[in-house]
Amino acid sequence: MSMKRIIEISLIIVVLIAGAVIIILTTGESPGEKTYPGLGQDEITIRNATNNIITYQVNKTYSGNAPERKRLKSGDIHRYKTQENLDITFSCLGKTEVRTLIPGKPYSFRYDEDNLTQLYEGSHGRPDVIDLAPYLATPMNVVEKMLEMADVNRSDVVYDLGCGDGRIVITAAKKYGARGVGIDIDPKWIKESRAAARRAGVSSLVEFRVEDATRTDISKATVVTLYLLPESNALLLPKFEKQLRPGAHVVSHNYHIPGWEEKEVDFASIEDQTGKKHSIFLYKK
Ligand SMILES: C[S@@+](CC[C@H](N)C(=O)[O-])C[C@H]1O[C@@H](n2cnc3c(N)ncnc32)[C@H](O)[C@@H]1O
C-alpha cells in the first residue's frame, strides 16, 4: 500500500471518530442507541399499562436468585437494577411468551390491536408520570387528513397531547395559520419540535412544552390531536369532558376514544406511502 493511500485511510478514520464524538457530545447518545428519560443504563422497567393484574416469571436472574413469580398491578412499574439481560416469561391467550429484556430500556405490558396483552419496548420509564404511548410518528399524509377532517383554520388553537417531533401543530400553523401547543414528556422531542418550528418559520404561532399531558390545561384548545393508545385516550376523556369547550374537535390517529362513541362525527381510513392503513376518528364535543 502506498504512503498516500495510508494517509487517506487514516484521515477517513479520524473523520469518522470525530463525527461519532460530536454526536455523543451533542446528544449524549452513542450513534444508533436510544436513551430514555428517567431510566439508567443499568436499569430495566416493566410497566403495566393494562387494566388487569399481570403475572410473569423472572427466569434468568440479575442477582443469581431462583426464578421468581411476579405480580404487577395495573399502572405499577417494576424496576430491576441490572447490567445483565433479564429473561421473563408471561402468558398470552394460553401461549407462553419468553422475552429477553435489555438494561437501559423500558418495557410495558399493553393491549395489542386485538385487545390481547403483549409486552412492548418503549415507555418513558418514569415512575412519576403515566406513560401514554411510546414514540411513533404519524405519517405526513395522515397528519394532513386529520387537520382537514377537523376543519382547522387560522382561528383555531391546536393542542397535540404527546407531540413527538411537533409535526401536527407545525403543519396546522404552516398550512392554515392556526396557533398550536405541543406537549411531550420527553425533553428531546420538545427540543426537536422547537427547532422544526424555527425551520418552518412558525415559531411565533406555536409553543412546545415539556409536560405530562394528563396534567396539561387544555381549556384554550379548539382542536386536540392524539396519537396515543385506547387506554390513554380513555384516561384523558374526563379531561375532555371537563376542560374542552362545546364544539371543540378531538381527532385521534388509529385509536378511538372508549366511552365517547356518541361524540364521534367522522371516520376515515387512509393508506400511508408504504400502503399501511391508518384510521382517523373525529369527535365533536
Ligand atoms: C405515538 S407518539 C405521537 C407523536 C405525534 N403526536 C405524532 O402523531 O407524530 C406519542 C408521544 O407521547 C409522548 N408521551 C407519552 N406519555 C406522555 C405523557 N404522560 N405526557 C406527555 N407526552 C407523553 C411520547 O413521548 C411520544 O412522543
In the CATH hierarchy, what is the class of the largest domain? Alpha Beta
Task: Name the hetero compounds present.
Answer: S-adenosylmethionine
CATH architecture type of the largest domain: 3-Layer(aba) Sandwich
Structural class: alpha/beta
**Would you tell me the overall average pLDDT?**
85
Span between N and C termini? 73 Å
Q: How many strands?
A: 15
- The CATH topology name of the largest domain reads Rossmann fold
Textual characterization of the structure:
By secondary structure, the chain is an alpha/beta fold. The protein folds into two domains: 43-121, Sandwich (Immunoglobulin-like), CATH 2.60.40; 140-284, 3-Layer(aba) Sandwich (Rossmann fold), CATH 3.40.50. It has five helices and 15 strands. The chain has helices at residues 3-27, 140-149, 167-176, 187-200, 230-243; strands spanning 43-48, 54-58, 68-72, 77-81, 86-92, 95-101, 106-111, 117-121, 157-161, 179-184, 206-210, 223-226, 249-253, 264-271, 277-284. The strands form three sheets. The protein has a seven-stranded mixed sheet, covered by helices on one side. The protein has a four-stranded mixed sheet with strand order 4-1-7-8, with no helix packed on it. Helix 2 (140-149) packs across helix 3 (167-176). The termini are far apart.
